Amino acid sequence: MAHSVVIIGSGFGGIGMAVRLRQAGVHDVVVLEKADGLGGTWRDNTYPGAACDVPSHLYSFSFERKTDWSRRFPPQPEILEYLWHCARKYRVLDKIRFGTEVTEARFDEAAALWRISTTAGELDARVLVSACGQLNRPELPPIEGRESFAGPSFHSSRWDHGTGLRGRRVAVVGTGASAIQIVPEIAKEAAELRLFQRSAPYVIDKPDKPYRAWERAALKTVPGLYALSRARVYALFETRALGFIKYPKLMGLMERGFRRHLEEQVADPGLRAELVPGYRMGCKRILLSGDYYPALTRPNVELVTDPIERVTPAGIRAAGRTHEADVIVYATGFRSTEFLSPMKIAGRDGRELNEAWRDGAQAHLGITVSGFPNLFLLYGPYTNLGHNSIIYMLESQIRYVLGCVRALRDAGLDWIDVRAEVQDAFTLDMRERMRTTVWEAGCQSWYMTADGKVVNNWPGYTFAYRNATRRPDPRDFRARRATAR
């Protein structure tokens, strides 16, 4: 018997979707999770210093607001525990099938069902929801000789906790969001740390500090205080969208703050010059840290800006010099523009999603794909942010998907399929609006496909996205009634 809804992934999107479906009276829900625990990116990224760069008061569901965060910016263990708490409290833990990876899903038009193949067997669903996210497949750089290294090497999201770093020579490749959290922690115990930088990131101060006991007590007991704090932080971050999406010159104000931060923390003019990016601020992800630059000034830390030539059994060779290492950490990001890969997804007439997306991922509102009925994406194309909380965006998408599920049930429909012209109009609008954003200011980033299209980010305000996804418009879809079978 077919399930009402099958969800792929048990991170924030998958857990939030399962909770909202249960609250709406849809109980025949299955969550498929390839790992042995829930949490998505917050399960995978357990490296030293792992934490969120969104303030904690914005990093919880609206239906389960957490008032007792330990810090202004939540650390990874607390975020993961919060997700487990939500799954237990809202009784969706028993809906999750752990150790079950989806390999293929094909839409059976005659039966109006998704036929899903997994590593643990087959199952069917009326509705299929992908909650895989954008940051789940590690990107390992195609460096010559990478496999030849004699010591331990691993990606930051696959941290080898069995490899001790105290007193050892460690090489870190990459200077992105993970690296700036990892480097200060490793620098405290490694004998030598060499950081290989291809391009310098913009790093601004992270105003992080622990909440005091009386603050947590007040947030929990004083009516409206937590809601006021959440609204204040949301409004502050939302104003930053102006610089990202409409008036990139406004990023100059933040850039001056970056330069002050750098000058205060790095006295050496030579090192400071190597840490100044050669692109407009905001074109790549802006990073937050209060201890990254001080870590680079430690005597046991060296910044290497020469291009990497190859990895050798002894270490990393750059500009003719071999930097010997005992351990290599690749903080090199994720394959963010591939979305549902490596799963094979086939819609109507057997058309595969990879073929439909050969010119870049497309989905109306980042959620529905023409030719793939009853398939819904969470955190799909054009839904990532550079300025605010992704949880807010996910809740907008979850509400939209729930509206579609209700429409299927209440109208007695077999399936709904977004019209191609609606999807095309949305994609054209996104690409037109993207031209004025800072993300197309001339740099290469993980927001882009290989041919230079920015397909990850939402070129607008989050409240505008919430309004656009407030409810599905029946005119946007083709549908087949159950009586037509």
Automatic annotation (TrEMBL):
Alphabetical list of Gene3D superfamilies matching this protein: FAD/NAD(P)-binding domain
Classification via Pfam families: Pyr_redox_3
InterPro entries, sorted: FAD-bind_Monooxygenase_sf, FAD/NAD-bd_sf
Listed name of the protein: NAD(P)/FAD-dependent oxidoreductase
Originating organism: Actinomadura darangshiensis
